[in-house]
Amino acid sequence: MPNKTIYVSDGDLQLYDQAQSLAGGNLSSAIATALRRFVEVEHAHQAGLDEVTVVVGPPGSQRKKRFFGVRLVRWQYRPSGSQNVEIFSVYRTQGGRFAVHRQVQPNWEALSDPSWWFDAENWKSFDPRRHAMAHAARWGGGWHHGGEAVLDIYETLADMEPQVPPELFEQLQHGGEEPPLEDLDI
Description:
Mean pLDDT: 80
Number of domains: 2
Radius of gyration: 23 Å
Strand order of the largest sheet: 1-2-3-4-5
Low-confidence stretches: 133-145
Helix content: 25-40%
Structural class: alpha+beta
Oligomer: single chain
Number of strands: 5
Largest sheet: 5 strands, antiparallel
């Protein structure tokens, strides 16, 4: 097995000791794991991709998913007859697929309209604790957003078309095939 010598400054010695301890005594394994992650992230950044973390699942049992991609569009949609809005974020992934993150949130604009509060129909499904928590988390950077979120992956834009609102798909058709990064010499 080949040897590599790594010189460690006195200031970094404690960091290396912690890494060795966390890796079960195998510093070489810790270094290799860190380098693999570093190379993966740098290759993605050089390709114009960002590390994307999204939240999926229903409130109370949400989890995070992470991938490399570039966001093509973020689009808000209010289905007719709904007091919620759906927020779509569409990404082109490192593997060339399309990831669609869809989350449902209360329609804060409707909730700020006094006429909404005086309509008895709106109170049938309104839970002020859930809406207040979601509103607070939205402004506080928490990852609870008041409703369910899903992440769907599609091989092509055509595969995605029947699954998203037509207006969103139209936007994607105009910009979905652009390169994720264009280097400008300006």
